[in-house]
Amino acid sequence: MRVRLEDVARATGVSPKTVSRVLNEEPSVKEATRQKVLAAMESMNYRPSPAARGLAGSRSFLVAMLYDNNDNPASTYLAEIQDGVLDACEAHRYSMMVCPLRMRGQDFLHRIDALVTDHHIDGVVLTPPLTDNRKLLARLQEHGVAHACISPVRRKDVVGVYMDEQKAAGDLVTHLIGLGHQRIAHVVGIADHGASRWRQAGYKAALTAAGLAVDPSYIVQGEFTFGSGVVAARQLFTLKHRPTAIFAANDDMAAGVMWTANEIGLKVPRDLSVCGFDDTPMATQLWPSLTTVRQPSREMGRLAAQQLLEQLRGRGEGRLVQIPYELQLRASTAALPG
Amino acid sequence: MRVRLEDVARATGVSPKTVSRVLNEEPSVKEATRQKVLAAMESMNYRPSPAARGLAGSRSFLVAMLYDNNDNPASTYLAEIQDGVLDACEAHRYSMMVCPLRMRGQDFLHRIDALVTDHHIDGVVLTPPLTDNRKLLARLQEHGVAHACISPVRRKDVVGVYMDEQKAAGDLVTHLIGLGHQRIAHVVGIADHGASRWRQAGYKAALTAAGLAVDPSYIVQGEFTFGSGVVAARQLFTLKHRPTAIFAANDDMAAGVMWTANEIGLKVPRDLSVCGFDDTPMATQLWPSLTTVRQPSREMGRLAAQQLLEQLRGRGEGRLVQIPYELQLRASTAALPG
DNA sequence: GTGAAAGCGCTAACAA
DNA sequence: TTGTTAGCGCTTTCAC
Questions:
Q1: What is the pLDDT of residue B123?
Q2: Given CB atoms, is B75 within the 8 Å cutoff of chain A?
Q3: Are A107 and A192 in a shared domain?
């Protein structure tokens, strides 16, 4: 029924071990032998059994994508990353599992243990804010499980992918300043997320670079959700000198800001310019369409997984790669009248 | 290092086979023995190796969630279903893989073969429109792989979960009629999706039941995307007798309709009532917030997987369960003035 | 109701 | 560069 490694060996006239060597791309096989075996595998449509490989060997050819189920950014962000990770896994004949964790609460370390003990996971892809959880990283280290990070805060000795979010945020705010805005507010994301810190830092840097003061009352806390954008906007709209532009740390909060503007009759962008970050599908679906920064999530997932696999397959070390961003200037920002 | 079944056996003073019997919930074990073994497993923190079980036995304790990568509904829909499937799998100690397919193009059957041959998948959860692909279903049958469907078109001899979408759509349109609307248009979804058919059928039924004519020029084709909602709305807005209400077959298209209304200066709901279907997060984030039908995707994923596992574990047959819907009446619909 | 032996398909550690 | 032997941790088959 099933074509086994042994069958390929017999058909080729070599030992099972040699076929195994070819399968695992070990260098110590004569090129002629390798070609013969490869040809037989192909023609016999041989497919190795992951179960047998996992049981006998030290590798499982399995990676897991971990994400936080509480403080998750928009689900579309995670879905795109997942697709990217899957792309890379398929290209290298690895399988992927998905593993939601609840970072608040203590069970989440046990889930790591289970993943390692049960499935012998070879490596994991970490999404924010998991990328910076010291307990999690320590546990992975204990288990000897490799990992790649997406947008990690620490960038030293880390494998994965990141964007220069600070510079991107700075560019966005500089754009607002170029449109004549001076009273520019910022809605911050969840406090300990790297994304919040970078985007806020970029905001401040741009103001400072333009010789504008950083007014603390123009900086309000959010938590990356639509609702928190609404709350933040309401607070900003009660200020004596209302901001003429608001930079929200992500698109969801920007949507909340625009919703609130509608609520009190402010017209975007005439009365208020709004911009976000991420370029989720929503950005083009809002009215007016949202000025934001494009973050290529799927590509980031793909690259992170690729670096992880690079490392697992012993081909080089796995690096931290930077991915470029793109400003998306749309209809929600406009020049300040007068 | 690892606690094996044999270790549990030794600690309990029974044979490995007996421990295996307990593990697999086989009936032919004396209750006292079973308790003893269970206790030992617990205290020794025994975790069976999926690889070994898969290799030796006929089951893999693995299910896959399949989805279409081309005609996919909103990614948030799939993400929620995935979470639900995962919930059920964890509750029954099964693992889940995700498997995107491209239904256009022919490779997708090979991917099924790979899933079965490589991973010995025990069963799959099918999402629309995969639920009704005859080739896919036939292939699964060939392989003897069980499946559960989410919102399948055929409802006979099928395991899974569905909602009465036709009735829900009818209720929505009836609500519009109750508000005084008579010129009610409908934006249809992708032609061969069950969701499109049911929602359109509900629309027509409600009109007919109210003694209103079904005007073909008020029914325009869409494809479940925001952009197609825009196109459809533009078409409807050029009609001599513009509709006073538009029922789009999903929230994304409804958002497109609202966007277009904005574009040409129509005010929702004063000049136009709009409603959608699904109650995605977007529905509450639009301005004005969208009247729609709540479809509990995560719960549907959970239930479908649960029925699948029920079937796999031989406890009963697995049924097709119906899940209730809920109308969400929000700000995008209002009484017709005059 | 329980156990002994064999083997799932592959890789490890050695040997040649 | 290639082959041999043993066994990964479990389930199967068959015996008792």
A1: 97
A2: yes
A3: no
